[in-house]
Amino acid sequence: MIEITNLTKCYGQLQALVDLNLNIGQGDIFGFIGPNGAGKTTTMRILATLLKPTSGKAFVDGKNVLKQGKDIRRVVGYMPDFMGVYDDLKVFEYLEFFAAAFDIPSKQRKSIVEGVLELTDLQGKKSAAVDSLSRGMQQRLGLARVLIHDPKVLILDEPASGLDPRARIEIRELLRELKKMGKTIMISSHILSELEEICDFIGIIEQGRLVFSGTMDEIWRKMGTHSKVHVTVVPEHREKAIELLNTVPEIVEVSDQGSHIVVDFSDGQVAGSVVAKILVNGNVDIVSIEPAKMKLDDAFLQLTKGMVH
After folding, report:
1. 166 pLDDT band (50/70/90 cuts)?
2. Are 80 and 215 members of one domain?
3. In the chain, at which residue ranges do the beta strands (DSSP E only) sit?
């Protein structure tokens, strides 16, 4: 659905993007992460036809961003990191204005506006002044606006920025619903735990260069990290369990965390089975054995160097 080939953007001597290559499939949620100034917003603006690249190619739904801008704007919904609002407009007036901008026939506008208000759970605010809405409500209104013309692709730049925990959860659930509707979503965020929960693929960019693109499993494989499991045994068998686990050659480290034991393996494929076998043979009563899931924050810190332009 989105294809980027050798995309480069320069501002004078500054290279905001350097030979970026990226593919996002139809119906996928793609999380785009990187430090401030890494090139995320530049990429998104190019895809939304708001910025011209210096070189390279980009296609959205098979359409060239340089040659078919009008067609692309019909299939893309772009939400910037900060949404400007119009004073003295009510929510439904704001949405009807954008419906008119997309040449939606006047007879259809009311039903379409009602539909996006329902989808974004804003029916109760349709008569409220736009500039009176909370930050969370304004973000939802921003999503309602980009959905007015029923785009195939959503490009969302920091949609959860500045939101409280409840509002972030509501936005996340809305994105899941949009995925079910078949939308392709490209989203940037500094709240990495949020992306980890909803994204099919992750792209990490730094100083305009793509550091990584793939699934979370592929991130761990690329990092070559050890596999960790959390082991819980009955309290009276904890010391014995630690002693037994320390005899296993595949185990790099065993640490007692009080409530559980963390076992660090050099080979993750046999971690759970090895732990179970050694403890059962040693007559240790096991409560649970669970893989220790690494976080996207850890991968981000290890794969980036903290550099900005």
Report:
1. confident
2. yes
3. 2-11, 14-24, 29-33, 55-60, 63-64, 76-79, 153-157, 184-188, 201-206, 209-214, 227-233, 251-256, 261-265, 286-291
